[in-house]
Amino acid sequence: MASHAPVHDTVTAYAMVPSWMLTAVSDVTLAATAAFLLFVVQYTLTSPWWKDRVGTTIVLKDIVLLCILVPGSLLVFFPHLITPVTSAWIDIFVLGGAAAVMCWRCVVWWLEKKPAFVQRWLDRRSAD
């Protein structure tokens, strides 16, 4: 019974993609990376986000978004540095981190906004 070794030849996989599409992927990846970094730097310079729970979740989400770009960027720009399986594992952990950050943001948002929400709800009930 012959066993087949998994194919990790990223270059061969990308050979089936039109060159204009690879150029578009690399350009958009660079633009997204620059935009996320620009926002984190701008927010850091203009607002003490580390002192605010909501601000902290905003910056952490953008850092996670940057991390989401890393495996795909490595596959496009440096295909010899990473295998598709390693890229998939990184994606699994980073996307899990994104889910955790967004759930944390929901909790933080609820804790920050709950008093006003509850008061509005009570006001509406008493008006009825």
Overview of the structural elements:
The chain is elongated. 80% of the residues lie in helices and 0% in strands. By secondary structure, it is mostly helical. It has one domain.
Distance separating the two termini? 76 Å
Query: Gyration radius, to the nearest Å?
Result: 22 Å
The string of secondary-structure elements, in order, is: HHHH
Range of strand content: under 5%
Task: Give a short account of the largest sheet.
Answer: none
How are the elements arranged and paired?
Blueprint: H1 10-15, H2 19-46, H3 53-77, H4 84-127
Q: Could you write a compact summary of the structure shown?
A:
This protein is mostly helical and 128 residues long. It has helices at 10-15, 19-46, 53-77, 84-127.
